[in-house]
Amino acid sequence: MSKLLIVESPTKARTIGRMLGKDYRIIASMGHIRDLPERELGVDIEHNFAPVYVDTPRSRPVVKELKSAAKEADEIFLAPDPDREGEAIAWHLAEVLKKGVKAPFHRVTFHEITRSAIEEAMRHQGEIDMNLVDAQQARRVLDRIVGYQVSPLLWSRIEKGSSAGRVQSVALRLIVERERAISGFTPEEYWVFE
Fold first, then answer.
1. In whole angstroms, what is the distance from residue 8 CA to residue 23 CA?
2. I need a labelling partner for 134 at 20 to 30 A (CA). Which of 3, 18, 85, 157 fits?
3. What is the overall mean pLDDT for the chain?
4. What would the mean pLDDT of 129-136 be, rounded to a whole number?
5. DSSP bridge pairs for 26
6. Sign of CA dihedral 80, 85, 91, 96
7. Alpha-carbon span 29 to 125, nearest angstrom
8. Which residues are CB-contacts of 124 (< 8 A; sequence separation ≥ 6)?
9. CATH for 3-128, among 3.40.718.10, 3.20.20.140, 3.40.50.300, 3.40.50.140?
């Protein structure tokens, strides 16, 4: 019985490999294997802001290796980091690898790289948390929409190379509004008698 465990980094893969032994093949995804395209918006605004993902050029050789390993595996364990980004990576891995693969997918999470934590995670397999995946996608789509639509406006009005972000743009607006309120304040003398 062959088991495939996918983690994010090669260092984790080597360390975990020494702990789990020969029953497992451990491969690093090297982070995200898909992303929005670099040179276009990559968000279908007309259809519920659906993201349009493409393989990253850096990930193509890794995806090829993962597909080959997945076809030979009896079970596939997705073990990217236990956070919003890691959950999205696990979902992308499952989406890309499930075509032509009969092995079941399991989500495993651990917060430390120790033998006991890894073994505990393998005993308590779960599912991909789609709420975390949706949260990551929403953040990524918002980043893209704001960045791709506001940054060109800044280039034409302020300076080429300026950028706008989902958080920094709102924070900047709050600062400007507060500064205008401070500048527009006219102090008036008043007295309180008791």
1. 20
2. 3
3. 91
4. 97
5. 5
6. negative
7. 19
8. 108
9. 3.40.50.140
- Residue (of 77, 73, 68) closest to 102 by Cα position: 73
Letter for the amino acid at 72?
A: E
Determine phi and psi for 133, rounding to 5 degrees.
Answer: -60, -45
Contacts of 36 (CB under 8 A, 6+ apart): 42, 43, 51, 52, 53, 54, 140, 144
Helices within the chain (DSSP H only): 10-20, 60-72, 84-97, 115-123, 130-157, 168-183
Give SS3 for 48. coil
Amino acid at 84: R
Q: Is the CB of residue 95 less than 8 Å from the CB of residue 140? A: no
Answer for the pair 111, 104: CB distance below 8 angstroms, yes or no. Answer: no
Pairwise CA distance, residues 87 & 105, whole Å: 13
pLDDT tens, position by position, 96-113: 999 889 999 999 999 999
Count, residues in the chain: 194
**Whether pLDDT at 1 is above 80:** no
Half-sphere exposure of 34 (CA within 13 A, CB side): 16
How does pLDDT run across 59-73, given as a tens digit for each residue?
999 999 999 999 999
CA 35 to chain centroid, in Å, comes to: 9
